[in-house]
Amino acid sequence: MKKILKRIWKIILIIICIIFVLLVVAVIYRLPVAIERSNTAEVVADIHNQKLTMDDVVGENLPSEPDIKLNNSTLAGIDTNNNGIRDDVELAIFKLYPNSARIRSGALQYAKAMQMHFRKDITNKDIFVAMIENEGRGDSCFWFALPSENVKLAKTNEELSKAFAIKENKNKEIYNLVFNTEMRKNKKDENYKRYMTSLGGGNEPYCDIDPLTLPN
C-alpha cells in the first residue's frame, strides 16, 4: 500500500513539475510580446503628445542656419532647439511666411509631423499608423491655414481647379523641404512598404493651435 501511495505521489510531483515548466516556458515565450506592446504604447503616446507650441509659431527660439553637409549627413538632421522640426526646414518656413502666423503654424505642424518618419522607434504598424495620423492632421491643418480667397472667388470649375492647385503646390513645397534628400525620401518609402495598413479616422482636431486664434 505504501509503495502504491509513493508511486502515486511521485506521479503527482512529476505532473506538477511538468505543469510548472510549461507555465515558465509560456511566460518566457510571451514576455517579448508583452514588452513590445508596452513599448509600442509608450511610443504611440509620445507621438500623439508631440504638439506645436506658440513659441514655435512666433519664433521664440529660432535656430541658426545649420551646416548643410552636416545637416544632410543623417536622416534626422539638425534640430538645435529640440522642437521636432529640423532647423533648415523651420528657417525656410519662416522665410516663406514671415508675415502670417496662421500659415506658419500649419506649415510648421505639417513639417513636424513628417519629420517623425526619421524616428528610430518606428518599428511596427501601430506606431506607423500613429505617425501617419499625425501627418494627416498636419496636412489638413496647413491646408485650412492657407488663404481661401481664390477658392471662394472662383466662378468656374477651371478657376476652382487653379485655386486648389495653388494650395496643393504650397503643400508640396513644405513636403519637399522635409524630404529634401534621396536618403530621406527612401526612408519614407521604406516605412510605407514595411508598415502600411488600413487607417481609421482620428478624433483629434486637425490643428494643435487654432489658426483663427492667431492675429494674422
Helix content: 55-70%
Number of strands: 0
Structural class: mainly alpha
Tally of discrete structural domains: 2
Describe this entry's structure for a reader:
The chain has 9 helices and no strands. The chain is elongated, with a radius of gyration of 26 Å. The longest helix is centred in the first third of the chain and has 48 residues, at 2-49. The model has no long low-confidence stretch (mean pLDDT 85). The protein has helices at 2-49, 54-58, 68-71, 87-96, 101-115, 125-145, 149-153, 157-178, 182-195. Helix 5 (101-115) packs antiparallel against helix 6 (125-145). It is 67% helix and 0% strand. The chain has 2 domains: 1-49; 51-213, no CATH class. The protein is an all-alpha fold and 216 residues long.
Features:
2 domains, 216 residues, mainly alpha
Protein topology:
Blueprint: H1 2-49, H2 54-58, H3 68-71, H4 87-96, H5 101-115, H6 125-145, H7 149-153, H8 157-178, H9 182-195
Helix pairs in contact: 1-6, 4-5, 5-6, 5-8, 6-9
Short description:
This protein has two domains: 1-49; 51-213, no CATH class.
